[in-house]
């Protein structure tokens, strides 16, 4: 992997409110794993993009006027690191992310963040469609349980695994934090 960009999607304090998002969450170490990868990218001086969801709903924890809009302390951007603000699921819509990646001649993306089935998935699908060689780190992403059309509760882990299965091989390659660390000498 040559000069891959690390894309940290919506790792914000507002997602700490598990009740607001559905009552159950998987991968409690997702932010820690994302932080491990962030440190690796910083050490190797590779490109880093922090994506920040700025909800247009003033009642959302992710609205810019709410404390939940702030980045998690584990992955807080350094002053020189790029922050891309968005208000929809894809980090590519309504932003200049693609132009920044193209200007830096980046062709490979490693995606971590929240939530697997929403912003991570939507961004990864668009990245794949744009032709980026895209990797999603399964244990550095997480989601929440969802209610089905009939009111059935679908577990967060099931939602997570299904979202990753839908992406694998068509839009992205699914990897783990350990895989990235163990292959860092050839991968990043």
What do you see in this structure?
Helix content is 33%, strand content 21%. With 188 residues, the chain is α/β, with parallel strands linked by helices. The strands form two sheets. A six-stranded parallel sheet has the order 3-2-1-4-5-8, sandwiched between helices. Strand 6 (146-147) and strand 7 form a beta hairpin. It starts with a strand and ends with a helix.
Query: Residue share in helices?
Result: 25-40%
Question: What is the strand tally?
Answer: 8
Write down the overall mean pLDDT.
95
Overall outline: globular
Main beta sheet: strand number and arrangement? Answer: 6 strands, parallel
CA(first)-CA(last) distance: 6 Å
């Amino acid at each position: 992997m040559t000069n891959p960009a690390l894309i940290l999607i919506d790792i914000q304090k507002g997602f700490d409110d598990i009740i607001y998002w559905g009552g159950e969450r998987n991968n409690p170490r997702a932010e820690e794993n994302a932080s491990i990868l962030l440190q690796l990218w910083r050490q190797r001086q590779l490109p880093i993009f922090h994506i920040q969801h700025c909800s247009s709903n003033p009642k959302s924890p992710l609205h810019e006027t709410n404390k939940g809009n702030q980045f998690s302390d584990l992955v807080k951007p350094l002053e020189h690191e790029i922050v891309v603000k968005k208000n929809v699921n894809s980090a590519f819509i309504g932003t200049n992310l693609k132009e920044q990646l193209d200007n830096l001649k980046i062709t490979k993306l490693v995606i971590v963040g929240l939530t697997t089935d929403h912003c991570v998935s939507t961004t990864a699908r668009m990245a794949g469609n744009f032709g980026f060689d895209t990797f999603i780190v399964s244990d550095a992403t997480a989601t929440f349980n969802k209610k089905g059309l009939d009111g059935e509760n679908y577990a967060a882990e099931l939602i997570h695994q299904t979202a990753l299965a839908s992406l694998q091989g068509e839009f992205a390659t699914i990897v783990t934090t350990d895989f990235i660390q163990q292959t860092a000498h050839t991968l990043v």
